[in-house]
Design goal:
Helix 2 crosses helix 4. The chain is mainly α.
Amino acid sequence: MNDHRSLPTSVSSSRAPARGATRAAEPSSVDDARLADLAKALGHPARVRILRHLLAADACMCGAIQDVIPLAPSTVSQHLKVLKLAGLIVGEIDGPRVCYSPARAALAELTALLHHLEPDAADA
């Protein structure tokens, strides 16, 4: 299994930029790995629903998420773990419970990385 999270942040593409292009406009392999990690974290419909619910509620206790997502509590917890490891949500311990909320900076990063998939995105 390839774990792209272990790549150093200084890794860049070994390809030379196209004539007239600058290296700054070309996404790095680290950007590609980060986009792949985020996409993988969103690669299950239950995780998409959890994130959508958290965005609508802004914050939510784990039990309330389990009420909305028709899955076993252990399955919901596993999906929350995947989202948290990817940095898409944050969990704050509140006594015996955990309150989850969306990590808006990571969602902005995801939006930017998706925008750079388009060839002309750097020119926009």
